[in-house]
Amino acid sequence: MPKMIFTDKEEATFLRSQKGQPLLMDRAGYLYCANRKTDKRIYWKCQNFRKKNCKARALTEGFFVTKKSGFHTHQPNPGYSGEKDSSEWPQATIHV
Ligand SMILES: [Zn+2]
Prior knowledge:
8 strands; eight-stranded antiparallel sheet; single chain; mainly beta; 96 residues; N-terminal domain of TfIIb; binds zinc ion
C-alpha cells in the first residue's frame, strides 16, 4: 500500500498588531506572537500566554503552519481587525 501523503498544510495568516508587532492567526482564529526565529522557522506562542496562562504554541515554515502544540485555555479572537501582512515573505519581515 502506498504511504499516505499529507498535502493539507495549514496556511499561515500573518497580521500586524496595532503596535506593529507580527502576529500569526491560525485556521481557528487564535492569535500568536513571534517568540523565536531561525533561518527557516518561526516559533510562536499564544498572544494570551500571560493574560490567560495559555501554553499553546505554533511553528511556521514559510507560509505554512507546520506544527502546533498545547491547548488554548480560552476562545479564539473572532473578527480581529488588524492589518493583514501578506505582501512579503514573512521570514524577511518578521524581527523577533
Ligand atoms: Zn491561547
